[in-house]
Amino acid sequence: MKAVQIVRPEELRVIDVEKPSITEHDNVLVRMTAAGICGSDIGIYHGTNAAATYPRIIGHEIVGVVEETGPGVTSVKKGDRVIVNQVVSCGHCYPCSLGRGNVCDNLKVRGVHIDGGYREFLVVPDSDCYLLPDSLSDRDAVMIEPTTIAIQSCSRAELTAEDTLLLYGYGSLGSSIFRIASQICPNIIVAELSDEKLAAAKAHGAAHTINTQKEDFLERVSAYTNGRGSTVSIDAACSKGSLLNLLKATGNAGRVITMGFSTDPTEINQFLITSKELDVRGSRLQNRMFGKAIEMIREGKLDLNGVVSHTFPLIEAQKAFDFADTHDPSIRKIVLTFDF
Ligand code: MN
Ligand code: ZN
Question: What's the predicted TM-score (pTM) here?
């Protein structure tokens, strides 16, 4: 079967590998139908993802059809359409004992630390398979994974209806977070450097928008919050100055959520955190949020149709990654398909 492997940074290859088979009673053989390309996949390709190891078959936005099941599997059956959980945790370390397997001490992420979904077939435990709602095509269903990341950040922020959320960045991560946050909290300020993206945020119901290049960011946040700052700030831009900006813009007793993976030092100061008693919390991957995302789709609260902007067959992955690198403004989500 075909697979896409990043042999080493900047070297992508379509390779032939052996089709996996069921070895455990709880195994499910999934035939892939769609796999999303995420910013982190592009990071692994370019060698900027500190977590990745090489060579690696990447892909963690994994959608397919159940082809075969082990003797102990009852939750899914042949022909079921599923999305596969990308987080593999050990179940017995300290974070796992707290129910936080997404930061397991022995964490393995499919497509990062172990081989992922850019291959025609994969075998996973049945507990990692989530049934897709009928209302969503396989290609659009890859968006469930970014949605779980967004749900995780709102959960880490303990976002409530009473909060004033400052969302910094409205790219693919930011807009996914907005989609979830706006279900919880009506008062959202979006800060971004692209007018086009700010217009989209406004159209989707942002209370206020700030162009961080053209406007005085802190003055605007202050004006939109009656001088007290946001109660929750989420960094979906993860750029060099974003954390300092958010520590400044957040009001007393607020929460600041980081999501970036950069190891570059950035200057902040303790006074901003101590004096306001801010909670600065990381949000990584997602902690069993697939069920929640799928439930929201089933209830009609979340519509992921039409988010995917481009598709390429798996064997043209190089073309797809080259296209992603153009940062063409038409790109919202690129999906690899398996109908070649
Ligand atoms: Mn992703
Ligand atoms: Zn663990």
Answer: 0.95
Q: Rounded to the nearest whole angstrom, what is the distance from the C-alpha of residue 88 to the centroid of ligand 1?
A: 15
Q: C-alpha 196: how far from its chain's center?
A: 22
Residue 163 pLDDT greater than 90, yes or no: yes
Nearest alpha carbon to residue 102 among 311, 337, 289: 289
Neighbours of ion ligand 1 (CB under 5 A): 38
- How far is Cα 223 from Cα 214, in angstroms, rounded to an integer? 16
Give the per-residue pLDDT at 244: 98
Starting from the edge strand earliest in sequence, which strands make up the sheet with 2-8, in order? Answer: 11-16, 2-8, 56-57
pLDDT 10s digits, 211-257: 999 999 999 999 999 999 999 999 999 999 999 999 999 999 999 99
Block residue for tokens 């269903």:
141
pLDDT, tens digit (0-9, with 9 covering 90-100), for 4-61: 999 999 999 999 999 999 999 999 999 999 999 999 999 999 998 888 999 999 999 9
Question: 301, 302, 311: which is closest to 332 by C-alpha?
Answer: 311
The pLDDT of residue 33? 98
| Helix, strand, coil fractions of the chain, as percent rounded to 5 | 30, 25, 45
Beta bridge partners of 62: 35, 84
State CA 105 to chain mean position distance: 20
Ligand 1 center to residue 41 CA distance, Å?
Answer: 8
Phi and psi of 273, rounded to 5°?
-80, -50
Q: How far apart are CA 139 and CA 171, in angstroms?
A: 20
For residue 267, give the nearest of 244, 247, 250, 242 by alpha carbon: 244
Q: Is the peptide bond before 95 cis (omega within 30 degrees of 0)?
A: no
Q: Find the ligand nearest to 90 CA.
A: 2
- Ion ligand 2 neighbours, Cβ < 5 Å: 89-90, 93, 96, 104
- What local confidence, expressed as pLDDT, does residue 262 receive? 84
Q: Which ligand is nearest to the CA of 86?
A: 1
- pLDDT (0 to 100) of residue 264: 86
Looking at the DSSP assignment, which residues form a beta bridge with residue 167?
190, 234
For residue 259, what pLDDT is reported? 96
Closest ligand to Cα 107: 2
Question: How distant is the alpha carbon of residue 263 from its chain centre?
Answer: 19
